[in-house]
Fold these 2 entries.
Entry 1:
Amino acid sequence: MTPDELRRLLDADETQYSRIAPQLTAADLPMVTELAHDDDPMRASKAIYLASLLGGSDVVAEAADATDPILQAASASALANLPAPARAHIAEKLVGRGDAAVDKLAIRALEGELSPALTDRLRRLSSSSPSDVVRDLSADTLRRLG
């Protein structure tokens, strides 16, 4: 698949990840990574999610550090496609930054052992998040994993 073909597929209103991902391999990850840095945040966010389907946890981690909330949300959404250890590491970058939507996505993706830093953030959110949903998710996740 060429970069132009991939760009066209990602630009669709309803991106068909289940049709795109099987056509790509880990060797295509650099092309996907390049699109994750696209000036168009919607295209970049779709490329971030696609990278997660190809094992590109580094792409998802980089998006977690972005200042653009669209890219942070893409990173949080992509977490569920990554192995549990990578999820926790990236979730530490996302949880508790003040965006309830990102918090919800990242917290829902958590599995396995929580780091002390993530445990502390979840404790803080369980009692002080302005979002009822984030408070409840944080408390439930601490009970389930902590």
Entry 2:
Amino acid sequence: MIKKILLIPRAVEINENKRLLEVGRLLSKKYDVYMLHWNKPGGNSFIAQAGACFRDIFKTRQVFESNGVLFAQYPFFHRPFSAVNIYNTSSLQKFIDDFKINVVINAVNPLFPTPFSKKYKHIFDLNDLPARENQSPEGRFTYEFARREAQKADAIIAGSQGLVDYAKAAFNRKAYLITNGVRLSDFRLDFEEIKRIRMAFNLLNKFVIGFSGYLGEWVDTDFLIDLFLELRKKSNSIAFMIIGEGPRLSNLKRQIKDNNFIFIGSLPGPKVAHYLFALNIGILPFKKTPVQDLTFHAKLVEYTVAKKMVVAAPLAEVARLNFPNIVTAGLSVDEWVKAIEQTRSMRWDSGWDGLTAGYDWTKISEKFGEVIEAK
């Protein structure tokens, strides 16, 4: 009998739930896999939030296909927290029973507590710190959700060694280490495409420093601007390229008006790879916070697949990755100027070519499969 698996991601946005989308896509070759879907509010206003809540309360239990992905839905409450714990758990139980789900894999999303039952296997995917603080009602609710899920889960998967350690310290549970991955098949070197990109942005004779990823609050955009201005004082051949979108993007665009500071926007995976190949070095200018310290930064793997030297903030998981092409430096302009100069003198070693082989999503999904089948 083919197992039926329900995946409950951390967020409805694609950039926030890429891990389970990628894993689900590959697991679907062996299992019947359903991705939970819900309504994203059309804005931050009370009316937009209330509208999304109202639509989700009156959803029917069903599965449907969209763009090759099987989605699942069932009615649930966004608030109050008491209803989330009682009604949402019961609603999920009815979905599990109606569609004969064998395995539930849920991320840190407190809207979807799982029912305690021996009728299905429960795997808790701890791919993020459960709560950045526990002083607010929402923070306490999220932490308590994670604690309960960790205690009743049949198995826990953690997205970094730091989160493995966290699961042991906070919940007294062992966890399987399964990091995020990359699509290695996207990275096909195309010299003509690299030349086209560089010509399009007047970069043929320039040293291009690039950031690729989501521009969340953890990206120190003020530091990036200061670094760019300092490097441009030293050389007019320096250019910055920002690949991606996010809430910090508007701050960057507002503060910097320079043709050598290039904004690419969001791109599909294969195109991102082309732009990474077009860089000279990649950067990870993240603020050092508990969340970022415990996060596995798959972007470093992508830079490495593209055979780029990297300058990164000295985060715990960066140190654990310990790739020889990565130079770490605190978020000080002077330190990063020195680190960038160091990378310019480094050359790719062919012995590094195999560093990323284990991080392909195919390998990651196989590890998820091993946990699914473990007795």
